[in-house]
From TrEMBL:
Descriptive protein name: CapA family protein
SUPFAM superfamilies hit by this protein: Metallo-dependent phosphatases
Keywords: Signal
Native organism taxonomy: Bacteria, Bacillati, Actinomycetota, Actinomycetes, Micromonosporales
Organism, scientific name: Dactylosporangium aurantiacum
Pfam families named in the record: PGA_cap
Amino acid sequence: MRKTLAVLLCLALLTATAGVAVAPVRQVPDPGRAAPAVPPSVAFVAAPARPTTLSVVAAGDLFVQPALTAQAAADARAAGKDGHDFTQILAPLTPLTRQADLAVCHIEQPLARPEGPFTGWPIFSAPPQLADAAADSGFDTCSTASNHTLDYGEEGVRRTLDNLDRVGLRHTGSARSAQDAATPNVFKVRGVKIAQLAYTFSFNGIPRPAGKPWIANLIDVQKIRAEAHAARQAGAEIVILSMHWGTEYQNEPDRGQTGLAAELLADPDIDLIIGMHVHVVQPFEKIGDKWVAYGLGNLLVRFADGSRENTQDSVVPRFTFTEVAPGTWRVTDVAVHAFFMRYYPQPRLVDVAAATRNATPGADYAGIFRRITGYVNLRGAEAAGLRMVR
């Protein structure tokens, strides 16, 4: 949603004067003229109209392995920059995320110090410039609850959140204090308050520090419901739940996912669920009048050569929320964009529909699009109104 500085300044000026009378120029009396019968008019600047629809874009795992770190370092050098530059890899995504009213991301691993170490399996960390790239790409808020949240302990959590704060990205799912953890991630989008919550199924056996269970969120239905209700009490009209869950490399959602989705979407305080973790695309499903995206896949990834090709797949849905009654919003349109992480000649994200239209060489993009569409539709999403963007 991040716009140019000029646009932001214009909005700020409008907001500052919204609904405020601008004082008329003082008239100096002229002894030779009669006083005006009608007082000078007072000019008003109208407040921005409250929207009736909002667009929310969500993306899958920003999951960085050493090979991807090396590419980001090479891209930075080529641009005459220090450190790491992930913006070239993410470039095809940027128009979509910047145009949305709200763009949601997922930081899979802790962010390291500028000098590293930048590590891969089984303990992960990514360069801090990943936060810069996420902000530059147009993301507004990110989930940080994953099975790798505690890979570098409390220091890693703090460093990650400090870097997200540094670039102006909101975050949820891990915290630096009990007070922070108890404060729902609620923010305004075009005057409408929205909340994002985030929970994970595991920390890969790493215990949370003694006396600090608030440092990162484990999936607990009652706690999720309580936080969603607290977000409503704080004024949120839309509540989005990010869930790190499921069985890795399995395109079908498992029973835990489907059961949780049905239970949580039955709660009036939760409007949408977006899922991460399994490293492949999973289906979308409409449950009642709400949606769940079980797994969005890996947005950023560079697994070893020979890994399953579908681990390079991802989807970026655009959910349109419509206010169906005062303060009540529902998803009324779901448009899904297919992406693919190309590994050669260098790692780059590819818009699959565009590559198919343009007959871009390097992969069978038409076949990749069909494969991703099949995964998205495993639970009847298209029949429920979802559209794949071609």
